[in-house]
Write a structure and sequence with these properties.
With about 350 residues, the chain is of the alpha+beta class. Helix content is about 30%, strand content about 5%. The protein has 10 helices and 6 strands, in the order αββββββααααααααα. The strands form 2 sheets. It has a 3-stranded antiparallel beta sheet, with no helix packed on it. Strands 4-5-6 form a 3-stranded antiparallel beta sheet, with no helix packed on it. A hairpin with a 2-residue loop joins strand 1 and strand 2. Helix 4 crosses helix 10. The longest helix is centred in the middle third of the chain and has 19 residues.
């Protein structure tokens, strides 16, 4: 079984010869640029990307992460000047939502606090007070809608943005939605939220790399080889195969197979997959849930789950052994290398190192 960048628009003030009585507007008002999205320390910035910090726009000259914009340090940041224009009442266009105590916020969420100031979440948190929990929040200029915030002001909390997800799967089947994945993650809140920011992204990349390998880049929902479909019914199980001999073929992101796996997954998720196995091919959230179910609970021949392997430093290779150990120990090196290549590609998109022990 196997955040869009706002272009810094600078109004170029022409030098005009006016009558002596004409009023001259201050240059800072005439040429103020719109603020780029607020700087978030955990975000990876590459050359040309912009962020706003302390009322200025900044442009990254090369790859950087965790280095606060300034004219010092490594010199990675270029100061583009002040931004934000007039801050007078009635003239702003800020749409950052009000902070709500007890509401979940992901990294990058921008909120308006009760004192009228704005804060950005530098670490995900369950609605801690920005003026007290300063490790989780940093003051910021209003960045508009607050990045990937949803209608209530919270974010998905997933370390992979929707844009990055789409970059990873440019030809994906519309069935495999980002929303379906983030909804499924509610069933397993430890997924990609355990450990350091690097470990979280490595786990997300490892899961998505294996998923990509299993589904041809999130293209296939059902197992391609229909001749195999009747082989996944174990009649020795007391519940048999009520949906039919051929009903338990591979489906979904990790190709859930066999009647006993449909039964176990369904029991764990609170869905009757034994009698309704096709839900894995017709409901995006349930489909993703089955993938996360195996990732978080299945051990295969690895002796540990894929989740534990990534958060405990055992490496990507152990996840391969947990998902399809037949490929390991020289069983199918080409398939192993395919998974490794995808993992390396995805950690690159997320801006983190791959770590060790990539093969099995």
């Amino acid at each position: 079984m196997p955040r869009k960048r706002l272009l810094a628009f600078v109004a170029t003030a022409g030098i005009a010869i006016a009558a002596a009585a004409a009023a001259i507007l201050p240059a800072t008002e005439a040429s103020a640029a719109a603020c780029a999205p607020a700087f978030v320390s955990s975000t990876v910035y590459t050359g040309g990307m912009q962020a706003s910090y302390n009322g200025h726009n900044w442009t990254a000259k090369w790859w950087t992460q965790y280095e606060t914009p300034s004219t010092g340090g490594s010199g990675v940041w270029a100061d583009n000047g002040s931004c934000g224009g007039s801050t007078g009442g009635g003239g702003g266009t800020c749409s950052a939502p009000n902070w709500v105590a007890g509401q979940w916020y992901g990294v990058g969420a921008v909120v308006r606090y009760t004192n009228g100031l704005y804060y950005v979440a530098t670490h995900e948190n369950p609605g801690y007070d920005p003026t007290i929990s300063t490790w989780f929040w940093s003051p910021t200029t209003c960045g508009g809608g607050g990045g990937d915030t949803g209608g209530g002001g919270g974010t998905t909390g997933f370390v992979v943005s929707e844009a990055q997800f789409n970059q990873m799967f440019p030809s994906r089947n519309g069935f495999y939605t980002y929303a379906g994945l983030t909804d499924a993650m509610k069933k397993y809140p430890a997924f990609a939220t355990t450990g350091s920011d690097t470990v979280k992204k490595q786990e997300a990349a490892a899961f998505l790399a294996n998923v990509s390998h299993e589904t041809g880049g999130l293209v296939y929902i059902d197992e391609i080889n229909t001749a195999n479909w009747p082989t996944y019914c174990d009649w020795s199980q007391p519940y048999g195969c009520p949906a039919g001999q051929s009903a338990y073929h591979g489906r979904g992101p990790i190709q859930l197979s066999w009647n006993f796996n449909y039964k176990a997954a369904g029991d764990a998720l609170g869905v009757d997959l034994l009698n309704n196995p096709n839900l894995v091919a017709t409901n995006s959230s349930i489909s993703w849930q089955t993938g996360l179910w195996y990732w978080m609970t299945g051990t295969g021949n690895a002796g540990t789950t894929s989740h534990n392997a990534m958060v405990n430093g055992q490496g990507f290779g152990t996840t391969i052994r947990a998902i399809n150990s037949i490929e390991c120990n020289g069983g199918n090196p080409a398939q192993v290398q395919s998974r490794i290549n995808l993992y390396n590609q995805f950690v690159g998109i997320l801006g983190v190192p791959a770590g060790g022990n990539l093969s099995c």
